[in-house]
From TrEMBL:
Annotated catalysed reactions: UDP-alpha-D-glucuronate = UDP-alpha-D-galacturonate
Protein name according to UniProt: UDP-glucuronate 4-epimerase
Record-listed E.C. numbers: 5.1.3.6
Keyword NAD attached: yes
Subunit architecture: Homodimer.
Membrane topology of the entry: Multi-pass membrane protein
């Protein structure tokens, strides 16, 4: 722990999350049918069987038998207890949190508000005067204490975070009855590529069923909100064309997590087409920064380097470097807010479409892929500790060897322009890390 004190002396302070993002118009970048036949009846019966079997699997995997889903339901049960939750005082708090400071401000529901990106987006919205209400189930995928600390940060800024599950229609209906949301920022998801091999049901429960549940609530709301949601760069899967562009193929997911995010994009298309919901998907590229996720490499590398533990660095089968398009969280927040600012209104009412609605997808990356080894070198410099490194071949667990974002579309239409390089971003992360874990002396987390 004594190694933490000198680190603070050579790190700059963290800037506040940015405000509204304005497009830079002067930029040089501005540039499926099934045919039925009686003889097909046996095949139809067979496919019906497979469909029913698939539904049964979904129900099984989404059941409370898995730890994450069970924890979500326990949290929801507590949040729906008769008193004091959901009473008049609860509704007053909900409305107060969601009330914007000005008549032109948005009223935004942020799901996954106690998550990494959700927290930063919520703070960014609140700082510029929008009304923000958070929703989070505080599952146990990683340290709940960190999520609670983020919740405390939000509450000190006047943002209420309701504890509950996006799969609960009753809770969502009560929230939409209490507040006429202009926008929904959907950040809630089961994250992590490798964890999908241990608990696949949690990904179906959160990323597919949860998204559908939220869209169902949005489609029946009056007025319907505009929706911005977090997809992922993982949808590009085994695509070898770089940099990744929005119109590249996304039909070869390398992990279940990627498959659920791709499914989310198809589900978004369906609800846009049928119900007139305005939906914008954002494909995030390896987001990092203060208040980050402990399951991310930059986070646990920092922890293990300070503890003197060996860290494993992946290489490809031909001994090449594994690289990521690391994107600093403040830059991602700019993109999220810009997507919100440029989102058009949904066209439906009472669950019925009344005209064509906006449907968009954008990459939010840094455009400068960095080898993981370079990330480790920067951490060694900032922490003033030499890492104990072991280079191993990347396992077949859903990871891909590289990511690289083409952000031309986001730059042209959103004015998105990342400004934080990896060294500066890691400097801000390390300063937060040693302050958070050092001052609190959370030895159990080390």
């Amino acid at each position: 722990m004594t190694q933490l004190k000198p680190i603070l002396t050579h790190l700059d302070s963290i800037p506040s999350t940015p405000g509204k993002f304005k497009p830079d118009k002067s930029s040089p970048y501005n540039l499926y049918r099934l045919r039925f036949h009686p003889t097909l009846f046996p095949r139809f019966t067979l496919w019906s069987f497979f469909f029913i079997f698939f539904i049964v699997l979904l129900i099984f995997f989404s059941s409370p038998t898995n730890p994450t889903a069970g924890n979500s339901r326990r949290s929801l049960k507590n949040s729906l207890s008769p008193s004091p939750a959901l009473g008049p005082n609860w509704e007053r708090r909900v409305r107060a949190s969601a009330r914007p400071r000005s008549k032109t401000g948005f009223t935004v529901l942020v799901t996954g508000a106690a998550g990494f990106v959700g927290t930063h987006v919520s703070l960014g919205l609140k700082r510029r005067g929008d009304g923000v209400l958070g929703l989070d189930n505080f599952n146990q995928y990683y340290d709940v204490g960190l999520k609670k600390a983020r919740q405390g940060l939000l509450e000190r800024s006047g943002i209420m975070v309701v504890e509950g599950d996006i799969n609960d229609a009753v809770l969502l209906r009560k929230l939409f009855d209490a507040v006429a949301f202009t926008h929904v920022m959907h950040m809630a998801a089961q994250a992590g590529v490798r964890y999908a091999m241990q608990n696949p049901g949690s990904y179906v429960h959160s990323n597919i069923a949860g998204f559908v549940s939220l869209l169902e609530a949005c489609k029946t709301a009056n007025p319907q909100p505009s929706i911005v949601w977090a997809s992922s760069s993982s949808v590009y899967g085994l695509n070898s064309k770089v940099p990744f562009s929005e119109n590249d193929r996304t039909d070869q997911p390398a992990s279940l997590y990627a498959a659920t995010k791709k499914a989310g994009e198809e589900i978004a298309h369906t609800y846009n087409h049928i119900y007139g919901l305005s939906i914008t998907g954002l494909r995030f590229f390896t987001v990092y920064g203060p208040w980050g996720r402990p399951d991310m490499a930059y986070f646990f590398f920092t922890k293990d380097i300070l503890r003197g533990k060996e860290i494993k660095i992946f290489e490809t089968s031909d001994h090449g470097s594994v690289a990521r398009d690391f994107t600093y969280v403040d830059d991602v927040v700019k993109g999220c807010l810009a997507a919100l600012d440029t989102a058009k209104k949904s066209t439906g009412s009472g669950g019925k479409k009344k005209g064509a609605a906006q449907l968009r997808i954008y990459n939010l990356g840094n455009t400068k892929p960095m080898p993981v080894g370079r990330l480790v070198s920067i951490l060694e410099k900032l922490l003033k500790v030499k890492a104990k490194k072991k280079v191993i071949q990347m396992p077949r667990n859903g990871d891909v060897p590289f990511t690289h974002a083409n952000i031309t579309l986001a730059h042209t239409e959103l004015g998105y322009k990342p400004t934080t390089d990896l060294e500066m971003g890691l400097k801000k992360f390390v300063k937060w890390y040693v302050s958070y874990y050092g001052s609190k002396k959370k030895k159990s987390s080390w």
